[in-house]
Structure formats: structure tokens, C-alpha cells
Amino acid sequence: TVVPVDLGERSYDIHIGSGLLDRAGELIQPLMRGNRALVITDDQVAPLYLERVEKSLVAAGIMPMHTVLPAGEKTKDFPHLEALLDAMLAARAERGTMVVALGGGVIGDLTGFAASILLRGVDFVQIPTTLLAQVDSSVGGKTGINTRHGKNLVGAFHQPRLVLADISALQTLPRRQMLAGYAEVVKYGIIDDAPFFAWLETNGAAVVAGDPDALAQAVAVSCRAKARIVAADEREGGVRALLNLGHTFGHALEAETGFSDEMLHGEAVAIGMVMALRLSSQIGLAPAEDCERLKRHLDAMGLSSALPASGRLWEVSRLLDHMRGDKKVKDGKVTFVMARGIGQSFLTRDVPEDALAAMLAEMAAGR
Ligand code: NAD
Ligand code: ZN
Fold it and tell me: Is 9 known to be catalytic?
């Protein structure tokens, strides 16, 4: 399956299928301005897939070099950005060198940002190897790093020239990471595709179990949705903010847990989406049944829909503070993604503070 991302002269294709890692060279070759590629990956993905990608590049007449970074969110920082740029320059990167990001969202975001500033911008290709990266972070051109002031606060819009989502690479992904990525798949159903949500209710178990047909379908529908929203609003002046469904709440949970393994991004987004639907229903916008339906589905998949009760006290005032610190705040007001039901999300800056605090208090109390 090929999903086009329509962005004028920055347009590109997303290829979705099994075995694409071995076809990377053939698919990248027509985009090459020179004959060299720099493959950037992490130390968990490298032993699994680096050799296959490099072999296919060589077979297509491309000379690859590679840099392997430590796996994990901590790699998305200034010191690793500097080390990466240094390694790229040491490898004699030129304007025509193709940069290849092979890995999850961490490698994609860091590598894309490095590509955007190396020699004032070189081409790059995304080869996402996590479900989250295949359905979300590899598409749309947002790149960047974290700073001590927060996540993704320094970065650039830099679109890839090509995205290769090889669903067979997900076979080695730990189940917890698979489920975290699945939360972003569910997100597209809630945003504006109720039939897709219903499809997931039937086929979600096959998706997270790694069934090739179900996975390919879920990734394709997700990428089409993301491509459509990004094409309508590349730099997030409007509708692109719908992709933040569940994220303002989720971000607060992640901040509260220190962006640690205690709660993965997708796990926070799952609970955040429940919060969005719950608040929407409590202020009379959406039927309560739609929130219950989302909770049932998340629970059935093995993704928690409630705040973990043990080991942590969730403080409403702190959660609210984190939301106000989000970079989507404008004039001190938070833009919320609310919904009239599953598949009917919309943006609003008018959410009653008392209803918001009450909903958070209930969730914090495990109700
Ligand atoms: P990640 O890149 O840290 O990958 C998760 C873990 O899985 C890592 O340990 C990695 O080494 C391992 N891994 C990757 N592929 C594997 C495979 N095929 N088999 C086995 N292990 C594998 O995390 P992620 O969830 O992919 O991405 C999270 C990042 O994405 C965050 O930094 C987030 O800010 C960013 N993000 C960016 C956007 C965007 O639009 N740019 C959107 C959403 C998220
Ligand atoms: Zn997300």
C-alpha cells in the first residue's frame, strides 16, 4: 500500500507492507542526489535490522555509513544532537547525502532534526520500526528534541522524502510498546472515523497480536488520516491540533511521572482520550455511552483506561499546572480537543474550569 502525503513540492509517499526493509535501497534510489547514505539507528534496533537495510542500499548502488545511538527517550537531547551532527560531519556528509532514520520515534525525531540543520538542511527518509512511529511520528515532518524545560520544545518542521513502514519489523517489538502505539491508532477513530473505531473493536486484538493483514490495514488507515490532516494544515495553525486528542491530559500524566517508564506516551494518551470523552460527556456534549465504549475497548486490548491507583497520589492542581505549561497554550488558554462522541472531535478553548477539575478529581480517586 502506498499512501501519498500531499504537500506541494514537499510531497512524499508512505509505503506500508511486509519486507520493505529489504527494498529500502530500491525505493530510496530514485530520490538520491548523490550516492551516499547515513543510517541513524539505536542500539536495540541495530542488531535486528541495520544489516538488512545497509545490504539493500548497497545492492541499489548506494554507499551507506551508520551511527548507532543509545535507545531511549534520553537520547533526544542536545548532547546527543551535537554528537550526531559531529558524526555526520566526520562521515563527510554533503548536501546530496541521504540521511536515513531507522527506529522508533526517538530516532526519527532526533535524526529528522539533525537533517534539518545539517548543512542548512539535507534530505532524509523515515524507516519507522515501532507502531507509534509507523502510525504517527514518522509522518508529518515534526522533528525535535527535549530540553530541561520540557519535551519537544526545540525542533523544526522538516518533511521526509519517503516513509517506509515495514510492518514485519513490528514482530520484535515488545508487547507493551505495541499497545502504547495502538493508543495512537485508536486516536484516529475517535478524531473523525467512527467506522474505523468499530473496525478496531472487532480487529484490534489481531492488530496488537501482529496479524499482518490487520496490522497493514490499521497502519494504512492511520497514515491516511494523518496525511489528510497534515496536508490540510502542515504547520498546525488549525485542524492539525486535532491530533492532540488525549495529549493535553496525557502530557500532564507523563510530566507527573517524569516521562519515565512508569507511563509510556501511548499509555498516557489512552487515559487522556478517556478523560477527553468523559469531560465531553460530563458537560453535556457527548453521550456517556461513547466514553464507556472507549474504556471497554482499551481495557479489552490490555491498555489501562484508568489512572494506576497504587504507588502514586495524583494531585489535580499539579495536573492542571502541567496542562497550562503545554506548548499548545496561547494567551494563557489551553486548546482542548473535545468530542460530541466517537468520531466527532473538535477544538475548543472554552472548557469550564470547575468541570475540568471535577473530572480530574474523579479520575485521580480511581472513579
Ligand atoms: P522509541 O523510539 O523510544 O522506541 C521504543 C523502544 O522500542 C526503544 O527502546 C527502541 O529501541 C525499541 N524498538 C524500536 N523498534 C523496535 C523493533 N522493531 N523491535 C524491538 N524493539 C524496537 O519510542 P517510540 O514510542 O517509537 O517514539 C516515542 C517518541 O516519538 C517520543 O519522543 C515522542 O515525543 C515522539 N513522537 C513524535 C511525533 C512527531 O510527530 N514527530 C509524534 C508522536 C510521538
Ligand atoms: Zn502521541
Answer: no
